[in-house]
Amino acid sequence: MSFTIAIDGPAASGKGTLARRLAAHYGFRHLDTGLTYRAVAKAMLDAGLPLDDEAAAVEAARSFDISEMRRDVLAEHGIGEAASRIAVMPVVRRVLVERQREFSRTGAGTVLDGRDIGTVVCPDAPVKLFVTASPEVRARRRYHEILGNGGKAEEQAILADIIRRDDRDANRADSPMRPARDAHLLDTTEMTIEAAFRAAKTIVDAAL
Ligand code: C5P
């Protein structure tokens, strides 16, 4: 049986960094499930298909190679926005959730991060974390990340995008983003990544 750490939370909350740190620390495999939605969105955009073409999206969800997904290719702002529109379709979610569950069963331990890991994908995970931070702090972090990578951005536009995406993710009918009943809440608004990692490690160590 694989030991799974389920991490959920909104965009730029720090959940991805935390997931990578925990995976490296415990020697667990990591899956950023947001990339699976982004991979489908990119396939649709590249093929010039409308994002609400369910049959094409399901086919894309079945056929992309999980081991080939790369955040640097899929990180683009437009792809995140398209991914959140793809993510409202239950038929697409069903295919991706099954592939994510398959990943969670491999190896000694896994870390999965996303929006519905603790509630839908791995409801029996022994550790569930829900990572949040204020929208303003998340927008600032994303802004500095983009500048740090040599890109250009406008903080107000990022904030507007974050608020719109939070709203769509939290209010969709199928698998809305919300903490599982047994999730530990981690508000990183005033925390460094190091402090968040230490808090998470204490929770995981207690469950191992
Ligand atoms: O986390 P990231 O920004 O890469 O996710 C892109 C979009 O994919 C999210 O806005 C959300 O709509 C969707 N998503 C989801 N369920 C997940 C992970 C991501 O619906 N488990």
TrEMBL record:
Q: Cite a single GO BP annotation.
A: pyrimidine nucleotide metabolic process
Among HAMAP family, the record links this protein to: Cytidyl_kinase_type1 (MF_00238)
Q: What is this protein called?
A: Cytidylate kinase
List, alphabetically, the SUPFAM superfamilies matched: P-loop containing nucleoside triphosphate hydrolases (SSF52540)
Keywords linked to the UniProt accession: ATP-binding, Cytoplasm, Kinase, Nucleotide-binding, Transferase
**Entry GO MF terms:** ATP binding; dCMP kinase activity
Superkingdom of origin organism: Bacteria
Task: Kindly list the positions annotated as binding ATP.
Answer: G9, P10, A11, A12, S13, G14, K15, G16, T17
Q: Which family does it belong to?
A: Belongs to the cytidylate kinase family. Type 1 subfamily.
Reaction(s) catalyzed by this protein?
A: dCMP + ATP = dCDP + ADP; CMP + ATP = CDP + ADP
Q: What is its EC number?
A: 2.7.4.25
Its cellular-component GO annotations read: cytoplasm
Q: What is the lineage of its organism?
A: Bacteria, Pseudomonadati, Pseudomonadota, Alphaproteobacteria, Hyphomicrobiales
Residue limits of the Cytidylate kinase domain? 5-195
Places the protein is found: Cytoplasm
